[in-house]
Every structure is written in C-alpha cells, then in structure tokens.
C-alpha cells in the first residue's frame, strides 16, 4: 500500500494568490510559470519547444531531449550576473533588482515578486543552506576551489518526514577540502566557483523537484527518493540504490517507484492541499517533468 506524507499547505501569502480574484492574484496565476522560473534555485536542463504555442489552441508544455535539473556554482563568475540559487545569498533588495532586470521577467509585478521572494527566504530550507555555504566559503581566495555537498541521509523516513532545516541531520552542508572525497549519487554538489557552467544534479535527491518548483513546494517538502517504503512493508529494509522498478532480496518490491509516487500525487486527496491542481501552466510543466523522470528511469 502506498501512503505518502500529505502535501504541505501553502503559506497564507501564496495561498491568497492561488485563490483570490484580485488583479494581482489573476496576474500571478497567468504568469505563475515565469514567477517560478525567476525564483527557482535550479534550471530546467532541456530545450522547451515554444513553437507548439504559436496558434490559438490551449497551452502546451513540450520539451526536447533528456530532461534534467541543473545547478550553477555558489558564486557567479566575475562580470556575470547572479542567477538561480546564487541570488539567495544576496541582500533581498539587491536580489529583487537582479530578478526584475532580467529580460525574461519583464512585465511581472515587482510587489508580487518581492512577496514571493520574501516568503522563500523565510520558509524554504535551501535558502539557509546556500547562505550557510556562502558564509563558510566567502573568505576563500578566488583561486581556491572547493565543492560543497548538500548531503541527504537515506535513513530518514520520508513518509513521516516533515520540514527539512539547515540544522537537521537529513541535509547538511559539508566542506570536504577540494571535494574529491564526496561522490555520493544522492548528494547535490555545488562548486564554490566553476567555469564549467551549470552542472546536472541527481534526481535521486529528495529536494530535486523542490529546488526548481519553489512555488509548488515552498517549504522544501521532500519529493521522491529510492527508499520510500510501502506502508504495508515498512519493517523491511529499503533498497540502497534504485531505479524506477524497486526491488527487495525476496524479489518482491519494497519501495515506492517514481511512477507510483507521481501517480499518487496526481490525485486530489481528502484533508490535503489541492494547490497543485490550481497551478495552471506550472502544473503542466511539473507533470511533463515527472513523466520524463519516470521514463528515463525505465531506460537507465
């Protein structure tokens, strides 16, 4: 039996934008995908085909190539503007200016963007993780390289897991010298400075989707990872690594697959927030992303 932790309720300021009929709220829902992209901590690492939306039909989110989420270095290269997670180590007013000056965000409401940014600064645990990483590395000389791991403790029970914090054992920032010692496939690895551009992050990490879909999971709620046990088999040891099909030593499946996880999330449930189904274009993007993850897991 599959039993996942309920989706966290939206904070009041975001819930109002999802529900109200004010001009601000309507503008937000019309542009929710753009607001999310402006505030996301990782990018969508694939080509989005916009040609399908040049007619008069309903909006379609179509991607080309392998889908992945990409993370940049903790600090931007000299002369470059900060993007994605890099903006969260800046003063909020300065970060807001960078967001509103970006050409992709032209026409968005500055006050709505400011309110959403402030919400994430206070609620999303990854913002504190990035700030902590910056505090550790800010005095390092420019020529010194390091890698920082956002480490996931696979022993935590995700069906009962509530809100990750920077002080928890489930996610911690470590500074392992030059980073060569940290190779765990479930860690999110950040370079302090990196001239190689954006790097693919592991879709096995439970923060994988919460780092990109920050307006769907503003509290940083964990998503899928390979060791979410079935409720009816919770006393069995979960697999150590995994693909989409699961498995246990006796040949019976013991853990929830990606496909099962996303199918569960795609149905409204009693006593659970239904905001996913009010997210318009952002919901479409999340569904395509989730489907691509499941398909890619079958092919691996």
- Supply the number of helical segments: 8
If you compute it from the alpha carbons, what radius of gyration comes out, rounded to the nearest whole angstrom? Answer: 19 Å
Order of helices and strands: HHHEEEEHHHEEEEHH
Structural class: alpha+beta
Biggest sheet, spatial arrangement of strands:
1-4-8
Indicate the multimeric state: single chain
**What is the number of E strands?**
8
> Which term fits the overall shape?
globular
Written overview of the protein:
- With about 300 residues, the chain is α+β, with helices and mostly antiparallel strands.
- About 30% of the residues lie in helices and about 10% in strands.
- The protein is built from 8 helices and 8 strands; from the N terminus they run H-H-H-E-E-E-E-H-H-H-E-E-E-E-H-H.
- The protein has helices at about 10-20, 25-30, 30-40, 90-100, 110-125, 125-135, 260-265, 280-300; strands at about 45, 45-50, 65, 70, 145-150, 170-175, 190, 200.
- Strands 1-4-8 form a 3-stranded antiparallel beta sheet, with no helix packed on it.
- Helix 1 (about 10-20) packs across helix 2 and helix 4 crosses helix 5.
- The longest helix has 19 residues, at about 280-300.
